[in-house]
Q: What sequence folds into this?
C-alpha cells in the first residue's frame, strides 16, 4: 500500500518536470554561495550573542549593581555605608556602634585598574559633630575610614570611579544626591 502511494507521488512529480529540467535539478554555484553566506551570517550572530563576557564587563556590571545596592541599603536601613579602595581590593564598609567595619571585600580582577576620585572635597574635621555615626580620631591609623560615604538620607560623597582595561574604560560618576551615571570610553 505504501509502495503504491510512493509510485503515484513520483508519477505526479515527474509529470511536471521534462527530461531537460530533471537534468538541471541540482544547485547552481550562485545558489550554493547564497546558502553559505546565510549560514555564515547565522553563525556570526550566534557567536556574538553567546560569547563570554570580558572581565571588565563582568566587574563593571557587578560594581554598578553594588553601588546602587549600597545607596539603597543606606536609605532603607537608615544606616550609613562606606566605600574604600586600596591596592587591588574594593571594600564595602558599614557603620556599627564601634565604628566602621568591613562588610565585604572584592578583589579587582587582574588586568583591570580601579581609581577612585572624589569630585568635591569632603572635609570631615570641621563637621565631625554633625554626623549620626562615630568617626575615628585623626590619630587612629589602624581604622579603615570610608573614602566615600552613602548616608541614610540618600546623600553621597560625590565621586567618580574609573575601571580601566587595556582597550576600554568605564567611569562611574555619582553626585551628592546618589545619581549614578556610567560612561564607556574606548
A:
Amino acid at each position: 500500500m505504501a509502495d503504491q502511494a510512493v509510485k503515484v507521488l513520483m508519477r505526479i512529480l515527474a509529470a511536471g518536470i521534462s527530461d531537460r529540467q530533471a537534468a538541471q535539478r541540482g544547485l547552481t554555484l550562485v545558489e550554493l554561495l547564497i546558502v553559505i553566506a546565510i549560514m555564515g551570517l547565522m553563525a556570526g550572530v550566534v557567536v556574538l550573542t553567546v560569547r563570554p563576557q570580558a572581565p571588565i564587563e563582568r566587574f563593571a556590571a557587578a560594581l554598578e549593581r553594588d553601588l546602587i545596592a549600597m545607596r539603597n541599603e543606606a536609605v532603607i536601613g537608615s544606616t550609613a555605608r562606606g566605600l574604600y579602595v586600596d591596592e587591588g581590593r574594593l571594600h564595602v564598609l558599614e557603620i556599627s556602634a564601634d565604628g566602621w567595619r568591613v562588610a565585604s571585600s572584592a578583589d579587582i580582577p587582574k588586568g583591570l585598574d580601579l581609581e577612585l576620585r572624589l569630585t568635591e572635597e569632603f572635609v570631615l574635621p570641621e563637621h565631625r559633630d554633625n554626623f549620626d555615626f562615630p568617626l575615628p580620631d585623626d590619630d587612629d591609623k589602624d581604622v579603615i575610614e570610608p573614602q566615600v560615604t552613602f548616608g541614610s538620607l540618600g546623600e553621597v560623597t560625590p565621586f567618580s570611579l574609573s575601571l580601566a582595561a587595556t582597550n576600554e574604560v568605564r567611569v562611574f560618576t555619582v553626585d551628592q544626591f546618589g545619581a549614578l551615571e556610567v560612561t564607556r570610553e574606548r
Strands lie at 81-86, 89-96, 99-107, 113-118, 148-150, 159-164, 169-174, 180-185.
